[in-house]
Amino acid sequence: MSDKTFAELLNEQVGHEFSAHQQYVAIAVYFDGETLPRLAGFYYRQALEERNHAMMIVQYLLDADHPVTIPAVEAPEVSFTDIVGPVELALAQEKRVTGQINALAGQARDEGDYQGEQFMQWFIKEQTEEVATASDLLKVVQRSRENPLLAEEYLARETLGDGGNDPTAPAAAGGAL
Questions:
Q1: 77 and 23 Cβ atoms separated by less than 8 Å
Q2: Could you tell me if 14 and 54 are in contact, meaning their C-beta atoms sit under 8 angstroms apart?
Q3: In angstroms, rounded to a whole number, what is the distance separating the alpha carbons of residues 47 and 28?
Q4: Closest to 138 measured CA to CA, from 175, 86, 99, 102
Q5: Kind plus residue range of the DSSP H or E element containing 3
Q6: What is the pTM of this model?
Q7: For 88-119, what is each residue's pLDDT tens digit?
Q8: Domains recognised in the chain with CATH numbers
Q9: How many helices (H) and strands (E) does the chain have?
Q10: Which of 62, 25, 17, 50 is closest to 174 using CA atoms?
């Protein structure tokens, strides 16, 4: 697997989750600027979920008595040519995070860290949902490219994801702020 320990990789994942948070804020702002409030709201909620994922990992590291490092994040992509680009970017991001989460679970298993492996199981389940949701939304916006209000109507009718309200989720540092 990796020359790094599970705890070191978790600290890196904190940065990945904060990067995802920033990217989702940028996507939400793009949709707000296009006067597409439902798409904007969806991505503002996604941003909060990613922030909370980072804080869940922080809490786990604190509970497991590992040092916590909050890494810097790169600036998000902010320019898009139409409503499809941001959603494509979001799906690619979720697929990348899924790979990161799977690698973390594998690292915990390789180290015999059963608590760490168990902790990662919730994230594996979450990523399955996130990729499915992003894939569905991408199909909708691709069909709605010429009339973005159709995507807005879809979001008005459908409930995507759990909105971050999963009672089985690990605790986040600082509480569910």
A1: yes
A2: yes
A3: 8
A4: 86
A5: none
A6: 0.91
A7: 999 999 999 999 999 999 999 999 999 999 99
A8: 6-157 (1.20.1260.10)
A9: 5, 0
A10: 62
